[in-house]
């Protein structure tokens, strides 16, 4: 039986593969099936708007046990598992996209600061309240994607860090799920 997980998450292929590997490990170790591939869907400007993970279950009776297996996997709200006859919503995480200006700040700001340091500090600040799951570069923006139980909590925790770092001078945030 072929099914798919439609992820309402802004993940580039390498980041999506991390979820594929985890899902495949769960399927194989529980003898329910295997991941057969995945896709990342992007708008014309390169921004990701969804991902899919393709799965072959050993039989139709494996569908509900599979749902039980993934109930603790952190999918974003709006994600779902689909077969030809069923569609089940999964996921309770909310997402935050952080847009950092990657071209219009002074040369000194880019020369004397590092995006990796920003990411590390944001992750440290979030602790268990959010997880960093990827990046993208669109137009003049370096976009960071964070997911957690609450968009508001993620935003409240990262804003003080953003106000301290010159690379974040013209930041903006957007809820993505």
Q: Report the order of strands and helices.
A: EHEEHEEEHHEEHE
> What is the terminal separation in angstroms?
29 Å
CATH C-level category of the largest domain: Alpha Beta
Whole-number radius of gyration? 18 Å
Number of helices: 5
CATH topology of the largest domain: Alpha-Beta Plaits
Which structural class is indicated by helix and strand composition?
alpha+beta
The percentage helix is 25-40%
Number of domains: 2
Strand content: 35-45%
Q: Which key terms come to mind for this protein?
A:
single chain, 177 residues, alpha+beta, Alpha-Beta Plaits, 2 domains, 5-stranded antiparallel sheet, 4-stranded antiparallel sheet, 9 strands, 32% helix, elongated
Description:
The chain has about 180 residues and is an alpha+beta fold. It contains 5 helices and 9 strands; from the N terminus they run βαββαβββααββαβ. It has helices at about 15-30, 65-70, 105-110, 115-125, 150-165, and strands at about 1-5, 35-40, 50-55, 80, 85-90, 95-100, 130-140, 140-150, 170-175. Strands 2-3-1-4-5 form a 5-stranded antiparallel β-sheet, covered by helices on one side. A 4-stranded antiparallel β-sheet has the order 7-8-6-9, covered by helices on one side. β4 (about 80) and β5 form a beta hairpin.
């Amino acid at each position: 039986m072929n099914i798919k997980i439609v992820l309402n998450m802004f993940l580039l292929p390498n980041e999506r593969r991390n979820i594929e590997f985890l899902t495949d490990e769960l399927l194989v170790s529980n003898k329910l099936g295997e991941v057969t591939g995945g896709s990342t869907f992007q708008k014309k400007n390169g921004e990701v708007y969804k991902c899919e993970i393709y799965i072959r279950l050993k039989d139709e009776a494996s569908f509900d046990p599979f749902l039980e297996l993934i109930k603790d996997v952190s999918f974003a709200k709006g994600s779902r598992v689909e077969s030809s006859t069923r569609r089940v919503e999964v996921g309770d995480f909310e997402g935050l996209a952080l847009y950092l200006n990657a071209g219009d700040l002074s040369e000194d700001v880019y020369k004397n600061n590092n995006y990796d340091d920003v990411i590390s500090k944001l992750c440290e600040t979030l602790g268990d309240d959010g997880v960093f799951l990827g990046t993208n570069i669109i137009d003049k923006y370096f976009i960071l994607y964070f997911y957690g139980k609450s968009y508001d909590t993620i935003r409240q925790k990262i804003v003080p860090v953003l106000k301290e770092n010159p690379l974040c001078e013209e930041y903006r945030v957007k809820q993505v799920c």
